[in-house]
């Protein structure tokens, strides 16, 4: 199993279910309020840890109750939380989530995530050095992401970036990334030379792109340099929040098996993740993943 350093966000998810998303100006009655541990960095760390990877997370929480809940949860899954910093000026970030049983919408408040600075990354060089894979998302400041990629590239690490929510990375940074894992919306940030279709973007990218595509599955360039589409597994879907995060965490966890095998396992893990509410509740353990009969 890989030794993974996640550099990313820690949020508290305030979530409710709706049978359809509200129109502008419409008020809806939702289901009961649920409070879950979330944040793309946090979720991806937990996804990899539940599958047996050794995981450390570098991020920021506020000096508050929500922050302590996130720490408690990370400890439960044996994620190394030593590098997490507590920010005195800002609260722990929150995400306001509405989900139907096929989709979700999310608004993230900035909170302490925005205090994770490029200097924090410079201070963490030895931490980066001691890990095989550096896994990033875009819920922390752009300059922090860039510093992490620059250092990890210099140290010859495997760098995996989930560009969510989409923030434009400088053109000279993208080739330093080992794998990009966008969804069908985020991939548009990697268009170049007029490439328009998902297939064109993937074929012409200097960095391997594995596009997660919700219920349509996965699109990527295989070893034969052909576009390959793997359809998603059909499972009873309750809440898709965190499915992409499960994919990213699982992909890193299984990358030592080769990237095509890692994609296959990650697709299975993300299929299981949507069968329960909350970003993290459905994430499978290695035992659950192995036991499940996929068709
Ligand atoms: O990807 C799902 C996550 O996005 C949620 O947990 C929420 O916190 C936002 O970061």
Automatic annotation (TrEMBL):
Record's InterPro entries?
A: PfkB_dom, Ribo/fructo_kinase, Ribokinase, Ribokinase-like
Question: What's known about how it's activated or inhibited?
Answer: Activated by a monovalent cation that binds near, but not in, the active site. The most likely occupant of the site in vivo is potassium. Ion binding induces a conformational change that may alter substrate affinity.
The principal localisation class reads cytoplasm
Question: Which EC numbers characterise this protein's activity in its record?
Answer: 2.7.1.15
Task: Enumerate the active-site residues.
Answer: 245
Q: Which CDD domains match?
A: ribokinase
Q: Which residues bind K(+)?
A: 239, 241, 273, 276, 278
Q: Where does substrate bind?
A: 11-13, 39-43, 139, 245
Q: What's a Gene Ontology MF term here?
A: metal ion binding
Q: Does the keyword tRNA-binding apply?
A: no
* Annotated SUPFAM superfamilies: Ribokinase-like
| GO-annotated cellular components | cytosol
Q: Which GO terms describe its biological process?
A: D-ribose catabolic process
So what does this thing catalyse?
D-ribose + ATP = D-ribose 5-phosphate + ADP + H(+)
- Sites binding ATP sit at 183, 212-217, 244-245
Q: Supply the Pfam families for this chain.
A: PfkB
Q: Does the keyword Metal-binding apply?
A: yes
- Record's keyword terms, sorted: ATP-binding, Carbohydrate metabolism, Cytoplasm, Kinase, Magnesium, Metal-binding, Nucleotide-binding, Potassium, Transferase
Q: Which cofactor does it need?
A: Mg(2+)
Give residue ranges for domain Carbohydrate kinase PfkB: 1-285
Q: How is the cofactor bound?
A: Requires a divalent cation, most likely magnesium in vivo, as an electrophilic catalyst to aid phosphoryl group transfer. It is the chelate of the metal and the nucleotide that is the actual substrate.
State the family it belongs to: Belongs to the carbohydrate kinase PfkB family. Ribokinase subfamily.
Q: How does it assemble?
A: Homodimer.
PANTHER family linked to this entry: RIBOKINASE (PTHR10584:SF166), SUGAR KINASE (PTHR10584)
In terms of HAMAP family, this protein maps to: Ribokinase (MF_01987)
Q: What is this protein called?
A: Ribokinase
Question: What is the species listed in this Swiss-Prot or TrEMBL entry?
Answer: Commensalibacter melissae
Give the gene that encodes this protein: rbsK
